[in-house]
Amino acid sequence: MNPRRKSRLSLLLLALLGVSIAVGLMLYALRQNIDLFYTPTEVIYGKDHKSDTKPQPGQRLRIGGMVVEGTVVRDPNSLKVRFDLNDIGPSVTVEYEGILPDLFREGQGIVAQGVLIDEKTLKAHEVLAKHDENYVPPELESQMQKVHQPMGVSAADLKNVSEKDQQNMDKFQQHLQQTIDANKAEATK
Question: Residue 4 belongs to what H/E stretch?
């Protein structure tokens, strides 16, 4: 091999080694910032009910579910809050110290981000309250009513139930009840 090819090959190998080290360091740094998302059932049983996919104590994660009614306990001397979170299965306890979002309440969906202390307890450093996709801020709702009322659009129409649909449903229920009553009267004869 001539010296020119040898120097080109060594430069290529050196560049490849440098890129490999840079990618490795980048992946290592990203690994520390990844928070995996779990539901309470997945925290207890693991993803797809496989015990090898259960999060381990000390692992950073995000957990999403509904706040169980009657479980919110606030410390009167501090901003510490403790509540249970569940989906369709078992509950996980979340401990949080700080100001909760305005939309936080029992029965509401939330996402908590933090560190798993033990199998059923999460020490959260962030709590995000979710709202449904039909949420309309009160200010916007009053503006919409001012604009839509003159156009002949009722509040029921804004909620996807028109007055005409409601009238048709009432007529149908009356007709159904009359049919049931007629059948009962005929059966008793």
Answer: helix 3-33
CA 18 vs CA 5, 8, 42: distances in Å = 20, 15, 40
Please state whether beta strands 80-86 and 60-67 pair in parallel, antiparallel, or not at all (unpaired).
antiparallel
pLDDT tens-digit series, residues 75-112:
999 999 999 998 877 889 999 999 888 888 888 888 89
Residue 63: how many CB atoms within 10 A of its CB? 25
DSSP H/E element including 86: strand 80-86
Q: What is the pairing mode between strands 36-38 and 60-67?
A: parallel
Residue given tokens 């916007």 in the structure block: 140
pLDDT tens digits for range 108-163: 888 899 999 998 999 999 998 866 555 555 655 655 565 555 445 555 555 556 67
pLDDT computed for residue 23 by the predictor: 93
pTM exceeds 0.70, yes or no: no
| Count of all residues that appear for the chain in the document | 189
Nearest Cα neighbor of 39 from 94, 100, 88, 105 is 88
Helix, strand, or coil (residue 126): strand
> Which residues on neighbouring strands pair with residue 82, listed in sequence order?
73, 95
Q: Are 37 and 64 in contact (CB under 8 A)?
A: yes
- Give me the residue label for tokens 């090898």: 52
